Amino acid sequence: MSPIIAARGLHRWYGHGDDAYHAVRGVDLEVQQGEVFALLGTNGAGKTSTLDLLEGLTAPDEGTVEVFGMDPLRDRRRVRPEVGIMLQSGGLPAELTVAETLEMWRGTCSHPTTADDVLAKVHLTDRADVRVGALSGGEQRRVDLACALLGRPRLLFLDEPTTGLDPENRRATWRLLSELKESGVTMVLTTHYLDEAEALADHIAIMHAGRIHRTGTLREMVSDHPATIAFDHPGITLPQLSAARIDAGSRVEISTHHLQDHLLELLSWAQANHLHLTGLTARAASLESVFLDVADHDATDDALDAPIGALT
To answer: What are phi and psi of 245, to 5 degrees?
Structure first.
């Protein structure tokens, strides 16, 4: 089956000459039918610029994008009716009510659902007659999501969809997105909440300095990352744990790919020495550890992220 999105060798510059900023640097990615694809990265990593190219909002300076097998910019009239976009900042008219905003937006859709339907999905039915400018930031984000859903999209782009939402409404949005996925909607998601990516995403890509450094399922992403055991130093010589890295200060941190074996060995050693290991924690590898490793991995990437003129 052909991917819903296929991008090859994407590049995007801002500006010209020595002051040009190279925001996207040779990105390749594929998004399959019915999956949630999470694009993660630090601020300035190039996520939103990459989304702009995938959404057909601008053309790549180099490389190609196909959405449903078509160019999302050149074939916009055929692609756009199948796509819903929730931008990082919606910029909806503050003086219109929520219901008026949705009716206005509904007029731009080829095969829309009703305003009442999307209001119920984003839990804003009781706010229909409130002006958008009087809503909280989290409520405005839910209006942005409602607008993205009005056209009953087959493909949904979500740029930081739960920013500003309280924990209850974040979880409600996750449930809604899970229901959309079950109905066959394909989604591309950017988020700073790593637990959101862990909960929702089938595939994850981590960007840094305009490049994708890691990609795969959550299990694949963490498979080669060590677990961590930590505890307060007990004041005696520590055991030797084969194939583990031990950083011993006042707080001991052990990095290991054999968490169960090394934890059992450590606890047996503590028992034999009549020790109570205070502050003991054991953590399996996580998306957070992979993300931080990518963000901190190579200082030269930060230099490459500077304007070209700054490198001379």
So the answer is: -100, 125
pLDDT for 292 equals: 87
Q: Give the residue, 18 or 58, on which the prediction is more confident.
A: 58
For residue 244, what are the domain limits? 227-284
CA distance 228 to 159: 32
Is the pLDDT at 186 greater than 80, yes or no? Answer: yes
User: Do the beta carbons of residue 138 and residue 89 sit within 8 Å?
Assistant: no
Is residue 112's pLDDT more than 90? yes
Contact partners, residue 223, CB within 8 Å, separation at least 6 = 285
Q: From the CA atom positions of the chain, what is the Rg in Å?
A: 23
Q: Specify whether the backbone of 230 is left (phi greater than 0), alpha (psi in -120 to 50) or beta.
A: beta
Shared domain for 212 and 257, answered yes or no, is no
Tokens (6 digits) for 204: 């994850």
| Backbone dihedral angles phi then psi of residue 281, each to the nearest 5 degrees | -135, 150
If we measure between CA atoms, which residue out of 55, 137, 142, 52 comes closest to residue 102? 142
Between CA 65 and CA 7 the distance in angstroms is 4
Give me the CATH number covering residue 185.
3.40.50.300
Question: pLDDT by residue (tens digit) across 193-246?
Answer: 999 999 999 999 999 999 999 999 999 998 888 999 999 999 999 999 999 999
How would you classify the pairing of strands 281-283 and 21-31? unpaired
Provide the whole-model pTM. 0.84
> Cβ(289)–Cβ(196) under 8 Å?
no
Domain boundary among 203, 222, 241: 222
> What is residue 150's DSSP assignment?
T
pLDDT of residue 104: 93
What is the domain count for the chain? 2
Between CA 146 and CA 153, with CA 147 as vertex, the angle to 5 degrees is 90
Contacts of 94 (CB under 8 A, 6+ apart): 131, 132, 133
Tracing tokens 């399922």 back to the chain, one arrives at: 217
